[in-house]
Amino acid sequence: MSVPPLREDVALEPRDDGGGSLSDPLFGRRIKLDARGLGICRALARAGGPAELDAIASEVGAPLEVVRGFVDKLVALDLCATERAAVRVAERRALARVMREPARHLATLAGARFACTMCGSCCGGHNIGPVSEAVLDGLGAAMGAIEPEVRAARRIDKPVFVVLPGAGRDAGGGGDAQVMCQVSDGSCVFLDDLGRCRIHAALGGDKKPLPCRTFPWELVATPGGVRVAVQRECRDFLRATADEQPLVDESRAELEALVAALAEAGGLPVARSLPVLRGRELDSWAAWEAIESELMAIVATCDGVRPRETFAALAARLGAADRGGAGASFQLWREHLKSPLETMRRAAPAPDERVRIRIDALELGLEALEHARGWVLARALGEHDAEVARLFKSHLEQALWATTIVQASSVEAGLGRLVAEWVLARLIALVRARRVKRFHVTAQDVQDGLTIASFLFRHDDLRPLLTQLDPLTTAVFVDDVSGLFARAADLDEPDRRAELVKF
Ligand code: SF4
Question: pTM for the complete prediction?
Answer without folding.
Answer: 0.91
